[in-house]
Amino acid sequence: MDLKSLIRDIPDFPQPGILFRDITTLLRDPEGLRYTIDFLTQKCIESEFQIDCVVGMESRGFIFGAPLAYKLGSGFIPVRKKGKLPAAVHRIDYELEYGTDSLEVHQDALHPGSRVLIVDDLIATGGTASATAKLVQKIGCELVGFGFIIELRDLQGRKHLPDVPIISLVEY
Questions:
Q1: Which pLDDT band, with edges at 50, 70 and 90, does 1 fall under?
Q2: Strands 75-81 and 99-106
Q3: In the predicted model, is pLDDT for residue 99 greater than 90?
Q4: What is the model's pTM?
Q5: What domains are there in the chain, each with its CATH number?
Q6: CA distance linking residue 39 with residue 18, whole number of Å
Q7: Contacts of 152 (CB under 8 A, 6+ apart)
Q8: Cα 114 off chain centre by
Q9: Which residues are catalytic, by number?
């Protein structure tokens, strides 16, 4: 299946000069969505990831991470923006191109030694994925890899990530 044909390009969003890769057109296509989850699962199995949980970043990482965790027989852990989780959290602050942001995970969600796969819809500059990796490693987890649906290669996000396997299904 040609996943690129299911991803819509929106020029000048969220600001002029940006070409936004919109996955809502992929998500509305039942065959495309099923194929995406199955293909990502297959790639994880081929990579022989031994994981305890899939960590998905807010919010599109939830869309792909939860069904992937189900297919892999693991747990799913949401990583959220600051102030969205109700119990005690671990937090990491990180730099963006235009300021700072924070990510949080419940303190009881991950334990030292847990083997973690981080999943999101897209890797661009790598800032959010890198911050999530630092957060899970700060807790003492073993980061086994990353899984992305889309990779924007020209933005070189990989160079900001730890040296673990990285799966991406579609590259631009």
A1: very high
A2: antiparallel
A3: no
A4: 0.96
A5: 49-171 (3.40.50.2020)
A6: 28
A7: 21, 122, 123, 124, 172
A8: 17
A9: 60, 97
What are the tokens at 117?
């796969």
- Residue pointed to by tokens 């792909």: 64
**Residue 20, both tokens:** 């936004």
Burial 86-124 (b: 16+ CB within 10 A, else e): eeebbebeeeeeeeeeebbbbeebbeeebebbbbbbbbb
Q: Of 98, 131, 166, 121, whose CA–CA distance to 21 is shortest? A: 121
In the Cβ-directed half-sphere of 28, how many Cα atoms lie within 13 Å?
Answer: 8
Task: Report which residue type is found at 171.
Answer: E
Q: Which long-range contacts (CB under 8 A, 24 or more apart) does 6-14 make?
A: 6/32, 7/150, 7/170
For 26, the token pair is 């992929």
